[in-house]
Write a structure and sequence with these properties.
Layout lengths: L27 E4 L1 H12 L3 E3 L3 E20 L2 E18 L5 E12 L10 E4 L4 H34 L16 E2 L9 H8 L2 E2 L4 E4 L5 E13 L3 H9 L1 H8 L4 E2 L6 E4 L4 E9 L3 E8 L8 E9 L4 E11 L3 H19 L8
Parallel strand pairs: 4-7
Antiparallel strand pairs: 1-3, 2-3, 3-4, 4-5, 5-6, 8-9, 9-10, 10-16, 11-12, 12-13, 13-14, 14-15, 15-16
């Protein structure tokens, strides 16, 4: 048996920053799906392609189906992404007044194709000669512009999600990593990846598998609060960005639609609205900025109108055990107390 400190350095975990994944030996994974959808939408929506004769613009991205992830194995980075994208376009001949509409389809944006090989199909809604000319302009001239935007997405994906994937060794150094867009057969199969991201449920609390493949012990929070306001005012305070800024006294962002993102307290709390039932129920993916990367809890807020107040019931699952008290106090001190003091929800308004 080796003496203390003389064993294989790959398995000496004491005082190592990479103690949970010694020398980055095990497969770890970050989910890049939500980030990718936002990124692709921002890159393509409003994109203008024009010359002296024609003007075309991608108006709306109507469909983004697929997934993306960043993975680390033996200090090597692998990126998997597969997307089907559809968008609406509008264009016209600059010398004329009539405009034409159509669709763009990108059926195969994946790591198996370089951006210049990605198929882009352009269709016209109306079969007219002038419209056909506009469509052909978009198909020929716009192809490179759109592919360049897809190349930006791939570049930014690698830059954004390579951060923090390779854990430093005890001496603070990191292994030289090679970035690869490997196909699925070179990494985990779909079922194995699905199992890695599943949560393991036990009675009472839960033990979650984070997007990095590391188990996180979690707790559930149940809370109930009473507000002296109407149910509609309380619902607005939880979704409307102007009211959020009023009671947090911080910059905030809120897209109060299903799938919309939010950010509060200067970006320290972020998430997504998963379900919105006006004046009744809100379900969110919610996290503190300091939580393990890509780990979100699920917050359900249920509202009930009473004769002289509104009752809010909170259920939050997936809170890391080490963050439970901080999270519980955060709701009370930074949400509920501030609403009551700064919005007047603690005084009788009926």
């Amino acid at each position: 048996m080796a003496k203390w400190g003389e064993g294989d350095p790959r398995w000496i975990v004491e005082e190592r920053a990479d103690a949970t994944n010694v020398n980055n030996w095990h497969w770890t994974e970050k989910n890049a799906t939500l980030w990718s959808k936002d990124k692709l939408t921002s890159l393509l929506s409003g994109l203008v392609i024009q010359d002296e004769t024609y003007f075309c613009e991608i108006k709306d991205v109507t469909k983004i189906d697929g997934e993306a992830s960043a993975n680390n194995r033996k200090s090597k980075l692998f990126f998997f992404y597969e997307w089907e994208i559809k968008a609406d376009w509008k264009g016209h001949v600059k010398s004329g007044e009539k405009s034409f509409k159509g669709t763009i389809e990108i059926p195969n944006l994946s790591e198996e194709h370089s951006p210049e090989d990605v198929d882009i199909n352009v269709a016209l809604n109306e079969d007219q000669s002038d419209g056909f000319k506009v469509k052909e302009f978009l198909r020929t001239k716009g192809m490179k512009v759109i592919r360049d935007k897809l190349a930006v997405y791939i570049k930014d994906l690698k830059e954004e999600f390579s951060q923090g994937m390779i854990l430093p060794k005890k001496d603070g150094s990191t292994s030289t990593s090679s970035v690869s867009t490997a196909s699925a057969e070179n990494g985990l199969k779909g079922k194995e990846k699905e199992l890695m991201n599943q949560s393991v449920v036990s009675a009472g609390n839960k033990e979650y598998m984070s997007e990095l493949g590391v188990k996180i012990n979690c707790k559930k929070l149940d809370d109930e609060e009473q507000f002296k306001c109407s149910i509609s005012d309380l619902y607005r305070a939880l979704t409307d960005v102007q009211m959020m800024r009023a009671y947090t006294s911080e910059d905030a962002m809120s897209d109060s639609t299903k799938g919309g993102r939010f950010s509060l307290f200067g970006g320290n709390v972020v998430g997504q609205f998963n379900e919105l039932v006006p004046d009744s129920k809100i379900v969110m993916s919610w996290r503190f900025k300091t939580w393990p990367a890509e780990h979100y809890s699920t917050v359900t807020l249920s509202l009930q109108q009473r004769e002289d107040c509104t009752i809010l019931k909170l259920t939050q699952t997936g809170i890391p055990v080490t963050e439970y008290e901080r999270t519980r106090e955060g709701w009370k001190n930074y949400y509920w107390r501030n609403m009551k003091q700064r919005l007047g929800f603690g005084a009788c308004l009926f």
